[in-house]
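Example record for the data management plan.
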Amino acid sequence: MSRKFILTLLLITGLYRDQLHAQKSINNSAKTETIIALWNSNGDQYGMYPVAIWEKMFESEYEKALKENNEVLIFKTRLALSSIYHDQSKFTKAFPFLKFIYANKLQLKENEYKTVLIKLEEEYRSFGDIANALIIRDERIKKGYIDTYWEIYRDCGLFEAAKKDFIQFQKKGSPASWKELNYYFYLGEIYFELNQVDSAQIVYKLGVQATLNTIDLNKKTKVYREANLHYFYGYFLGNIAKCYIYNGQYKKAIPLLLEDIKNSYENIENKARKIFYLSNCYLKTNDIGKAKLYLDSGIQIFNGKTNSDIYLIQLKSLSNYYNFQKAYDSAYFYSMAYVNFKDSIDKKKQNNQSVLLLAQLELSNRRSELIKSGHLLEEKNKIIKLQKLQLFTLVSVMVFATAFIIALYRNYRQKNKNEKFIEKQNYQLKISSESIKKQNDKNEILLKELHHRVKNNLQVMYSLLNLQKRRNKDADTKSSLLSIQNRIQTMALVHQNLYTTGNFEMVEVVSYIKTLITHLISIYQTESKEIEIIYDIETDLQLPIENVVSMGLILNEAVSNALKYAFTKIKQGKLHVVIYSNAENCIIEVKDNGPGFNNQDLKENSLGMKLIKVMCAQLKANYVFENTNGVSHNITFKK
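Corresponding structural encoding:
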């Protein structure tokens, strides 16, 4: 066999192999294009397959496109996957794809471009990046895809502004339409965030009825995917349940939450959120088994997700559960995690509000332009009608064209002037914002220092009384001085709490009360006494400083009296401290299991009892004192 023949054979074999590879590549491309065409034919719905099936199909096709280095199919599969990931709240996967697609937006059709802008803005807002979200929103506004800003206001925590913008500019849509369901969906959320729960509940009930109407109509038209409509139905019921929970009606909330969870098999985040709510409802109704079951289920479902609001609900649910189980260390751990994470979210919202403040003038001008453009559109329609009537004469057309060109030129000149004016105003607004921020930072430091100094001054008074107490040998005088010291320490702890937390308006009740009672126990408890303090304090309760000072003085007297007198004849004493709130009132209960005493033994001129009554009067509180099966103090006051 000659060498030339061998080379010819190898050449033919190589060409055949290359041809087979090319044919296989063509077949793979044809399959991918078929899947993409099927996907595009479904529009906003997922059609015949659940979202998880679409995800697996497109991930497989995307890997093939990468191996073949087919740039066209890489772009198309990334476009589909970005939507699939986004709709499942897998934002960390969707975000890089959306940024890539946006960078190559010239390859998109208009409806695809519109959808990409919506999803990219939602992801920027979910990550708290309002600056970039505003850039995308401005682009959507200029393209005429949208004319509202309420989502921006909402995600910055400005719910009142969001409500006004939504009601004024958001269109409701025709009856039994997807747009109508979304209208009730978002309006109810805004009312709920504003604590206007009754209004939110009314809107959610309208949403339930609108969904039922849409389901009935869809049986004939088959416009929408049935599973999506049932999700809306469950979602509205779940949010009505959320209103019941807000009003303490936990049993009424449970069946509605179960219906919502059943219909949320494709929306993992909503399912996790409502499972945590359901766990808390079972906890409140003392069904601890189901509470634990649903709590564990919610944690497992939410694992790996990034929604900060649901993560807060998870932390609060864990804190409530461990508090109910009297595992106070775990309850405290999750309570502090909740507080710290919420503080980080609040700080991010404050930063976003600063960004929004800088853009406020531009937003206002854009809003004016949108309103004006509506009037201009009406005028343009009239001109078109006039053109049709006057089309027979060339002179009229020329005159109109000339007038239109002049108007465009004037508008162009005016636009340039407006842009320069806006630029100047934005610069001045930026300088003003920076000055305000510096002053606010300075005021915050001064206020923090003020609380620190007040606390230090009270500690000095405490120490001076301590010196006086040591020099005095009279037992009654020492006891009086100790009582005064405890009252001073009660007020000092309030200022210490404000100084350490950095919240200068509200005091965290749990940490304050536990610190106060720990201090009192260290003073009065002896080795011969075993005193168990049982806390049942609402974990996230915060009260203004003026309320907390009065409440602290009341608890100081009640707990001190219990520690001094209630357990003199028993070794194992129990002291219950209960503090909780409802929609209007805050309730405090302090009760011991001591033998009590005869009402005749109660000193009418007792300074401690007088002080409790004076503080109750300051709080405008209802005070009930009982002396059966131990001593009980019950105080109820308006929050």
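Summary line stored alongside the record: The chain is about 75% helix and 5% strand.
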